[in-house]
Queue: 2 jobs
Job 1
Amino acid sequence: MIQDYLFPTSVEEALKILVKDPEKSKVIGGGTSFYIDGKELAKDISYFIDLGQIKELGEIYEEDGFIVMGANTTLTQCSKNPLIKENYPALVKASANLGSTQIRNMATVVGNIVNGKPFSDLATVLMALDAVFTIEDQDGSRETKVKDMYHKLGISALKATELVTKIKIPKRVQGEGSAFQRLEIREGLSFPVINVAAKLVVDKNIIKDAVVTASPLAPGPKVIEAIGEFLIGKEATDDNFVEAGLLATKSIKFHTSPLNCGAIAGVTCKFENCHYCLNPVPSTAQYRHEVLPVLVKRCLSLALEEIND
Amino acid sequence: MNDYKSIGKRVMRRDAREKVLGEAKFTCDVYLPGMLHAKVLRSTLPHARIKSIDTTKAEALPGVRAVLTYKNTIDTLYNQAAALMEIAEGQTLVMDQKIFDNVVRFVGDEVAAVAADTVEIAEAAIKLIDVEYEPLPFYIDPLDAEKQDTVNIHADKLHLQSAHNVPGDPSHIKKGDIEKGFAESDEIVEVKFKIAPVKQMQMETHSAVASLEDDRITVYCSTQNVQVVRGQLAHIFKIPMSRITVKNPPYVGGGFGIRIGLSGKAEVIAIALALAAKKPVKYIYSRKEDLIASETRHGGYVSVRLGAKKDGTLTALEMKSILNKGAYTSHGGAIHGTLGVMNTSLYRIPNIDYYGYSVYTNTTPAGAMRGYGNPQGNMTVNRAVDMMAKRLGIDPLEMRRKNATGKGDEYMLPYPCTSSTLAGCMELGAKEIHWDKRAEYNLEKGRVRRGMGMGIGTHFSGGHPFVLDYENAFITVQADGSVSVATAASDIGTGCNTSLAQIAAEALNVPLKKVYLTYADTSSTPYGYGSHSSRSVFMHGNAIVEAAKNVKAQILEYAASLAGIESSDLEIVDGIIRTIDSSRRFPKNIYARRIFLDQEFTPLGDEEFYSSITFTELAHYAHSQEKQFMGLGSINNTNAPPWYCSFADVSVDMDTGRITLNNFVGVHDVGTVINPDCVEGQINGGNLQGIGYALGEALTYDERTGIQYVNEIQQYMQPTIMGTPDMGAYYVEEKEPNGPFGAKGLGETPCISPVAAIVNAVCNALDIDDDDIKVPLTPQVVLDMIKKNS
């Protein structure tokens, strides 16, 4: 039963409210993923805590070699911010294409990760960019990376008394480029068949660093370690990128979806690790594996094109 | 093309303002005093017998006013499609549904319903109903269900089945000698399509509000034809039609065939609960209920074998369809019948053999959807024609110029081809899509390939003579000279309450602003079949033209009697009755009007006689003499074929199978255009629906559980504006002799041939002759095609 919809004006106040009844409180960033199932979910919620009025969460700035993004940053703000545009082409691409204009104007970058969905475009990119999340509760703050943001399928590792307050991403270094590729059945308003993000650092055409991530994989995206191992020290050539793509498909395991789900006719999904909930876009694991090398190759080539001089 | 005053004009739609402002009233906006809310318990198994059902806990919940199951609900057998009121004597009428049954036949089938004070209480009560099922074997694919060793899904109605699990009659269409046709051919091509079922995705889900007043049942609902529903309800509840009122409130948020007849079980459940609780009841389907438990388009298998001579002359067409009926018949035989008859009529072919039927399975029932079986055959036949063109080295456009059926040709349709501008449509479409660039695009052999394709088609403008189809209209000239037109159309979003008013205004020759339509209400309109089968303008329009003739004759006769001349000496121009020779004949005393002073006056001077009189003046004078002008129009025994073509320009990503639609053009022969905005709206909307059908829309079922995967709107891949090119909506006009002012059907046609055009474009881009096509062409399907053919 909903008791109140609250607008704290500071992180401190928000945490104070949150700790009162954490299990029955729902933190709202943009609210766009909550509203999909809102009517159903709202039955168990007493307090909505909307972060929208907290000014300190609304800024994007540079600090100690990082670009810092407050938790209220919307996808639209992210894709249009000069600092983000200067540093992370992959993040611009991902945040400019998710959902629809209306969703991007409301949804926050942080929300796309803490909703725990395995097919998050932003998590895939932020993992490749080695982003760090600052998480606060009344006892203090801690920092964590994307891989530790997921507890299990569909559930984030964020505790009920905690808030993500900002995301810090290492500033782009000399010779760095990044890119994001999303395969979808239709343009706009669809979950991805697969997502791939890449960060590449090249010096005199020799690859100094290469991180490639992919999703949807449970519970969150994964770094395809084999690609980094293979590419670092090699020349940034099409042939090597093709080879990297082929390595990719050997190192991760996609699932066929839909596979099983009882979430219908008023029944909640009863399957552990339900591949349907994992990714509602119908596609076989085989197809995902077939196109993964293509997307990895394209992503690396695009990242190379995006490298700053 | 004409000097019409109302016809062909871009007049603003009469629903535009209300809809834009959010003021338009739909069924969900209907609130009656003391109204209860309904919720439905649905089956979680695809096929099962109910062993026991216990509703005591639900009944005990405070606020619950009625709980219904098969045990305490009227058990009349019926068919929720319009079939019940449409099937002519001698044809098989399959009635295989009850409001509730002790057997459930798909996941989502209705098991019980609750009426309660609030939606929340009703929802809580549903969860308190205990059902014990005895599971039965179930089938997802019609090819499985038709095997003899399977369980019969309607074992108690075998007399309604022409073969095992095949309800009603198969469709068999024959012409000439098919074997001789193939023997005479130089080339034969074959192709088989596996087509996924898709959804109408109308914006408003099925809805009904039922109430009992003065010994009458009144139901507001989302049906496409109120009069048909009245007949169905009379049959189901065994109450005289004259004691039932059915109306739209008046708006309906889309139809696309999903409620030709009852809006699923919205009306019957709302009425059954209202009768039990003795209070008004509202039942609105959730989107999830709409997706899993309201009718779909038929999926299934269609195959074609086509023979031709070297010069491109077609000699033989053999076609077969096996469609997935789902759990109940609804629109059964008419669907595979339409599939066959339309697509054996597109091209001039002397030897034809078509055989088609639909098979019961345990999936969501398949019913009517925009195109009514036509698209499934259209994509297959048009694909075969392109394959043949390629085999013979003939351009597909040239192949169609040579073979397409034209005006006056004999074809398989049971009404003559009285008009066709298809040839002109094809030329315009080819120009707009830049067909001349097709060969140039085909030269690109990189990782992105580009191609173009086209498809042509025909359809109907109503149900005659496939089913009963007649129409009526009343026109009353009110005492102020304004015109009331009453006909049982439903405006399901097409704008027919504007275009039918335009027809009435033109037929009477009065200004459009003087004409108002009463529609979608059984208590104030004559019997008719409503808005489906591309018939609203054609059939309701024709009935209105007849009624207008009737009332016009009365008006002229009365005016002539006042003027002491013959009615043939008079004419009506812009709402003014005048003598053709301008002679002054109307005596001054008939202009002595005291009310409706804002209406039109004839400027009077000192003269004793005048040459004209306004509608208002004449109607008001008649009123003062205790007379009203009332016209009746009836129409039957008519139909006309609309024609159309679609063109698609696509690029295919050879590595992912992803298709990009570069350009899309639909060109339509609609006869005379009544309202260009409405026509273009229909074409654009239909194109989009066809594009979705081709590229991503599909319902799929878990073979182990029978559960339909798509149960949220976000999982259903309708096209978005992001992936849609700027489409062209075009038409080439020619008067259809049987249509009102030359108009014919359009409602369905725009979504019929897009799939053909897109499949042909993709095969052209890939330069392949795949004989086994799966629709929709998702990236995965296309990548498989690429691999299979490389």
Job 2
Amino acid sequence: MEIADKRERLQIENLEVTYRQNDNVHTVLDGISFTMYEGEILSLLGESGSGKSTIAKALIGLLPPSAAIKSGTLGLDGEPVIFLSQPGGAWNRLRGRGIAMLFQDARLALNPVMSIHAHFRETLRAHRLAPKQDPSSIGAGWLARLGFADPARILRSYPHELSGGMCQRVCLALALCLRPQVLIADEPTSALDTVNQGEVLDLLQSLQQELGLSVLLITHDLNLAEALSHRVMILDKGRIVEKGETARVLAQPKHGYTRQLLAARNLTSLSEAVSVSGRRDVPLLELQDLKQSHGSQRRILNGVNLRLHDREIIGILGQSGCGKSTLARCIVGLDPADAGTVRFRGRDITRFKGRARRKLARHIQLVFQDARASLNPRRSALELVQASLHAFRIGSRRERLERARFLLNEVGIKEAAQHRRPPQLSTGQCQRIAIARALALRPEILICDEAVSALDMSVQAQILELLQRLHRQFGFSILMISHDVRVLRTFCHQIAVMHEGRFVEQLPGSRLASGEHDHTRLLLRSADRLEAEARPASARETNMTHSSH
Amino acid sequence: MGRRLLLTFLQTLMTVFAASIVLFALIRLAPGDPAKLLIGRTMEIALDERTYAKMLGEMRTEMGLTGSWFSQYLSWAGSLLRMDLGTSFYTQRAVAAEIGERLPATFLLAGTALLIQVGIGLLIGMLSALHAGTLLDTLVRLGCVLLASVPGFVIGLLLLLALAVKLELYAIGSEAGLSRLWLPALTLGLLGAPQMIRVVRANLLSELGQVYVQSALSRGLGTRRVVGHAMRNVLLSTITLIGLSLTASISGAVVIESIFAWPGLGEYALNGILHKDYPALQGYALVTVLSVVGIHLTVEALYVWLDPRITRRKKEAAHE
Amino acid sequence: MNSRRGSHTLVFGMVMLVLLAVPIFAAPWLSLDDPLAMNAGARLARPSLEHPLGTDRFGRDLLTRTLHGGRTTLLSCGLALGSALAVGMLLGALAGMFHGSWFDIVLMRIIDVLLAFPFMVFAMVIAALFGTSLFHLLLAVVILWWVNFARLTRSIVLNTRKSTSVDAAFVLGISPLRILLKELLPQAFGPVLVLATFELGHLILAIAALSFLGLGSQPPSPEWGSMLADGRAHFMTTPHVLLGPALFIVLTVLAFNCIGEGLRDRIDPYEKHRI
């Protein structure tokens, strides 16, 4: 219990926030109290809708007008206690220098018409830090500390010229140049891909220790919290249900909700659950030297080869931009291939168009990442599932309706929700409907393009379980595309690792860890680094002792 | 960026070319013989048939009405390029010269109106957005809907009645100049104001909802400073509307000029209609078309100049 | 959920429109004076019980004329705008569906050219060349006004065509025609309806302005714009002669603007569920 000896940095007492929606008032945060100590990373864990972001916004005074703070005090080291329920500019003094914030999508957190230099200038001027020193030298100094090789060039740049990871590092520099005591990081890396994620987190961690900064890390990602934070708080429906040392909470969860969260991450491995049928001669789907360039100079697919057999599940692992989605679109004919062949049961379907292409819908189906966007918002769940049956004139009106009901029940959409339209349903429910719709034509191949990555952890787990069950029940093959090692590792018989438009390695799911290609190792490292680092709790304890001095 | 501008410029040239064909065709499609119109009905009665026919023939040659439509168009377009818009049927003077005399008046009116409109729009739109949801905001929005429903000439006549007749603040027949400009300019400015207010309000509200605003606030930047940052984006997105407003003011000036007897292009065109003065009308239409495409081109150029997302092409900065 | 955004404005606009439309369309059956009947004894009379809006320079009852005139104005504007809408939506949908084809390219160039002509200017040219009449003005409307609907429909069809939901429909094997009818066009109906409501207001204003300049329907038939033109000469001495038509124009356009605002707030299916 070393933390108890440390200086208290931030104290929040009894924070209560309500939202007004039409004429109803919902309580979003209910009696939140917690303390942050000097130089610690405190994780706030919870799923979307639990009120995580509301805490962040309440602490920094950025709640929307529809929200009201009913009660609560904020005590920052060396400052008089602030009553959060009182309106007024008490925050203005604290913002930036007392409490700073890092936003989820850093690209949006920078003004598109201002250069990075202008961002530093305005920020420093607002705190009257600029006159003494030239803003560009301060800015360049911080940018250099954040790992930029050429700070002068970055200062001249505009946000649209930088990548997401670079923008997040710029935002971190902007926040830190005011030397805040507390940094709130609201899902700071969830908009980044694995490699960028690792980079930003490394920087955050090392600078936090260097500066003795207290960080409130808001995340839905258990692994991230486990790897980085000294203590965690679990938030559920606006209440903190559990808090304590990270290792203790995650090893011996006391509250039921925490256990649910933990369970969601440990999926049963599929390799034991399903046995792959023996026939291996004619593959169901075969890709040969597939190439696609979207009409630009750069090849997006650069010679992809793959064989998918009956009842097999193949995972395609790769970072964003490696061509995974284009591959899916190529197979179903949304983006026609430039060269190479796609064979379905030995038949060349690469250049199928019009009616012939339409008929393939009965064999190959695609589930999109953004389920909500893939559903016509004007139609009910039942109508959506029936649409393809109707298009192929399968069955009578009653039979189609019954099949739609059956499928929706299978995916867990209850009678009452079957008549609702997408805007009235949750993202998880939309994804279930999209799966039911894809299965309506009894396809032999189901391609899932990041089908779970937009979902919360527990919903992710539910959908993956659903897919496993349906796979056992209907016996289709799955091409599972994801950037998430965890999703694929437990789910797939084979995993193909994709990098710059081609497969660099293909391994059985269970043996992914023994991958040899550099890129496989990089992906594994980025994903595992956090977990591996987190496991020995003692290692982190020693870390803490060092940083406290 | 240069290529983009060049492309827009070439497209604009094509548009002007096509518009000239449209105008040419319309005039040839119109009932009646322009040469007869120019000579006048009196001559037709006064002269004997042969002299009249000869005169008509000479007039046709002079007006370029002989030969095929194609050659007629070529000679017409050729004279246009030499800034020759023909001779007015009514005054017998060169149309180009007459338009040249009136153009500054209309541009002055439209330009002043635009300034008033942008001023009102920025000020009230900003106030309304910053006080969104309050009584002030509601009143502004109601006022906008109401003002947008009133015909321009009604506003003009009411202002005229109130300020010139009742209060005697404005003298209709006074010398051209500021004392005479302000009321028509105000009327024209008021006409475009509701849309400007609405767009500025909506754009500012949407900018204020952006993450970069929250991010700036979280770094402790004052509200005034942050609103200033947001306004840069608002101004940028308002440029298109400003261009459209200027166009609307130039064409809408007809009514206002007629009410306030402002000696601009609109009044000239109305006289042209009254006297069936084709060349005058044609000249008027051409000049407005040129102003419209010119404004459009300027707006494009302003974007290229002001918006860093267009000015600076994305660098390959991924590997830093 | 019971008080949706914009519903007050919508209801207000609708009620106002009905209140205006009923007397206007029932005018022939109401026991009113003949709109063309002159009365030399009561010229330019101020509003009174007998003539609620007064009389014009020929002693004709202005209320009667305003109501009768409204029918002409509303019907002709509605008809012209309806034709423009139909033409615009059809061409726009085709251009969006066959994006990049020669049809699309030619259509967009034509639209560019038409956009270079402000409506007032084009209408004036038509009036000068073919004569001043309401019919010619409406012709100018149909020639120019479809452009807005075409551009809107095209951009919506284009945007929706790239959307995931259309990709999904393609993958499900739904035919292109069905995709156009079921996925693409319904997306355009709402915004086009909103645009049409606002444009109807604009159109009434524009026609009124042109009639005021003497380029619209000609005396003695009553029409709001021409009544305004007629009263213009006496405006300084007897301003009430403009009251009837001006008031009705303002109220009608206001009704359409309110309906437009109300509809716009309701259109987006996701918008409603936002906090």
